[in-house]
Amino acid sequence: MLFAPLRSLARPLCASALLLALLSGCASTGSHTPTTAQAAPPIQVKVFVAAMFEIGANTGDRAGEFQHWYERYFRNAQPIQVPGALGPVFCNADGVCGSVLGMGKVNASASIQAIVLNPQFNFDQAYYVISGVAGTPPSRGTIGDVTWGSWLVDYDLGHRWAPEEGQPGAPVFVPRKGYEDYRRFALNPALTQAAYAMTRAVPLQDSDSAQRYRMRYPDAAARKAPSVHVGTHMTGDTFFHGPGLSKEAQYIAKLYGADDYVATEMEAAAIALVLKRSHGTDRILSLRGSVNFDQGNPQETTQAHLDPKPGDTAGGFAETVANVVAVGGVFVDTVVKDWPQWKDGVPAQR
């Protein structure tokens, strides 16, 4: 039996014990401390696939840039919401993740920055496949082609003037000083060549409409069946079109010391800049499928080619987006299967 003074002391002790018991299962005034829930470890990303747009749903309807990736890798994945990104990220059990970033340089770069800085993911050893559709000059490629980017060049960073205000036939572009580290990126040649070597013989789909459309062009490259190539990807928010601006794009590529311009797109150089600042560019791949020529044939105006009559479109879109994933999936599957050889960098090629 406790004396009265001791009973008064016991009440707060018992109250403390009760709180501890509720938090930690302790039934006495011992020294146990409450346990706290551990945060889930970040997802170790092996390959991140970045698409720019989707048409409707991620599966079951007309495919855009992401649907075939989703159906191949993410059918059973739960969406992971990332503040600041256009859409959710999907990840499978093998460490392959992907998302739709949005079209255009600002849209896509804002999304990729939000994703790579999000603590739910660990990108320290990740490879990036920037994936989408593109245009191609008929002198360099054709509808249905798939190209790995060797260089990413920003088309917009510079000074331009109207052609009539310069020398006849001379270029109307000069680079802007101070943008040397922002306007072009030489991607890791070992990685690009490894990806090309493992995919160069991948069979590509074609369509009757694309085959007929190619015959409008006199260029040998435009008339060929689709295949896998390597070259410079030209990034421009400006949807440049026509033989004059195509020639200018090739001029800019050569001005910067890059390879031949083979694909025009709207995001890759901006995404590369974001990744350069956070993780470097050694593990970036740019993969584009050609769904249009960057100019009309010699018998049509640029405006007519941009706004074709019914039945005059190129065709081959569905086949091209399937080709992109058929080619890119070989690389993704190889990295996952042989991860011990790839995790520290591109393995030596035999």
Automatic annotation (TrEMBL):
Residues 290-313 are annotated as: Disordered. One of its GO terms (biological process) is transmembrane transport. Residues 292-304 have a biased composition (Polar residues). It comes from the Bacteria. Residues 1-39 form the signal peptide. Transmembrane segments: none annotated. Coiled coil: none annotated. InterPro entries: Nucleoside_phosphorylase_sf, Pur_nuclsid_perm. Pfam families: NUP. GO terms for molecular function: catalytic activity. Keywords: Signal. PANTHER family: PURINE NUCLEOSIDE PERMEASE C285.05-RELATED. This is Purine nucleoside permease.
